[in-house]
Amino acid sequence: MTTMKSVFLAAISVAAAFPAADQVTFSEHVAPILFNRCTGCHRPGEAAPFALMNFEDAVKHGRLIAAVTASRIMPPWQAEPASYSYKDSRRLTDVELKTLQAWVKGGMLKGDPAKTPALPKFPEGWQLGKPDLVLKMEKGFTVPAEGADIYRYLRIPLNLPEDKYVQAIELRPSSRKVVHHVLYYADATESAKKIEAEQEASKSRTAGMKFTRGLTPLGGVAVGAQPHLLPEGLGLKLPKGTDLLFQYHFHPIGKEETEQSTIGLYFAKKTPEHTLTGVQLPVSFGLFSGLDIKPEQRDFKVEDSFVLPVDVQAISVGAHAHYIGKTMLMTATLPDGIVKTLLDIKNWDFAWQDRYFFDGPVFLPKGTKLYGQVSWDNSEHNPKNPSRPAIPVKWGEQTKDEMGAVTLQVYPAVESDFRTLQQTYRKHTAGIAGERLMKDPGLMLKIRELAGGTN
Ligand code: HEC
């Protein structure tokens, strides 16, 4: 009864919020939506292939705009609404969505140009404003026209005279088309230099891809994802003498391209009060989850759960898989049994990996059970399947292989609990790894191979 009533009320409020289809105009109704929701990327120099900055642009792409917004391909934002709202959500509201559909259906009227709002002032170049430190890669890396994907670590010495805490890193690729994704690491040891030397000495496209390097992960960006600033009071430590190491995943595009990225760093104004860490489920991107997906298997799932040993605050949640990933889920079962959804992706798209920041820190008490689940569709019905016919898929680092996990970024509510949190999670990982290695002794060989970088 209540549900019926609220559905009915929601329908009324949507209907009341916008005019009949033949009265929806670009100037009054559509321009504000496009300028706020689309033009940030759809303008010269940014990620999208065409501009959406005026009436003519909108009419030219009108039908496609209606189609890709209805299917929620655009704006890129994979997360369904969850139990906690996300910061800077790009998901269109129902009213916005209906307005765009009605405008196209109603004949794409222009309306009174005087009513068109001014274009917002977009940041030129750096999305987060002027960085505190800008570095350009000394040498570029040339991606050949053809062949398998390439994984490559590229090192950038920071030459920091003292310890610093970074709140955001923005990477601007010079050749966006070949950069599939980039993960960032900090290295205060000699590991980065060793990796570089190994890569130089080898012809393999995955040379230097290491598994346990002792590097500190700093996050990363995938194609199209926007950089985020960590909330005040948080930062990732960059000890004096740190090198930044960027793990690029390059995708050849049929012609040779040279990538030479520019990197901007944003430092925290003061020493952060909390230490951030990640709870990744399943652990190690599913390496120990028995990932073995048969051709035509449409709903292969892995899952893992972890009970929080201390109170935490959750900041953001992100997911990773390759092409045939299908759904991503993370829930939190609170000690009183209430289940909250932290991330729910129903139609994974490899090209739009993003990290979803909550509007504010989400408190999860000790005893909360975190649950992560990833599913894959290895059938030919999956238009994103790179293998035709479908082939058996196992855990691996090439895009035709798979891996997958959902990672919650947290800090302990009480800073002195950090070690307990870290050690409990490590124990959980070791337990799962041990169990899997008993069942699958061949896996050890694969891990050695990855660690050896000679595959
Ligand atoms: C975060 C950046 C971003 C935002 C925001 C964004 N787009 Fe896009 N859009 C892209 C990129 C990048 C592509 C090219 C995608 C590709 O090649 O896969 C694209 C492609 C498109 C296409 C072409 C799709 C096709 O199949 O050829 C349409 C239409 C489109 N966007 C409409 C919109 C509309 C309408 C909005 C706002 C409601 C919007 N976009 C918001 C980045 C964005």
Strand content: 25-35%
CATH class category name of the largest domain: Mainly Beta
Note the total helix count. 8
What's the SSE pattern? HHHHHEEEEEHEEEEEEEEEEEEEEEHH
> How is the CATH topology of the largest domain named?
Jelly Rolls
Q: What's the end-to-end separation, in Å?
A: 61 Å
CATH architecture of the largest domain: Sandwich
Rough outline: globular
The total tally of domains equals 3
Q: What share of residues is helical?
A: 10-25%
How large, in whole angstroms, is the Cα Rg? 23 Å
Unreliable spans are 1-16
The distinct ligands, each listed once, are:
heme C
Q: Overall pLDDT, averaged? A: 86
Structural class: alpha+beta
Topology overview:
Blueprint: H1 2-17, H2 26-37, H3 55-60, H4 62-70, H5 94-105, E1 133-136, E2 141-143, E3 150-157, E4 164-172, E5 179-187, H6 191-201, E6 216-222, E7 236-238, E8 243-250, E9 257-259, E10 262-267, E11 277-281, E12 292-293, E13 300-307, E14 312-321, E15 325-333, E16 339-345, E17 355-364, E18 369-376, E19 393-394, E20 404-412, H7 418-439, H8 442-452
Antiparallel strand pairs: 1-10, 2-9, 3-8, 4-7, 4-10, 5-6, 5-8, 11-20, 12-19, 13-18, 14-17, 14-20, 15-16, 15-18
Helix pairs in contact: 2-5, 4-5
This protein binds heme C (HEC).
Heme C is lined by residues 37-38, 40-42, 47-49, 61, 64-65, 68-69, 74-76, 90, 224, 351.
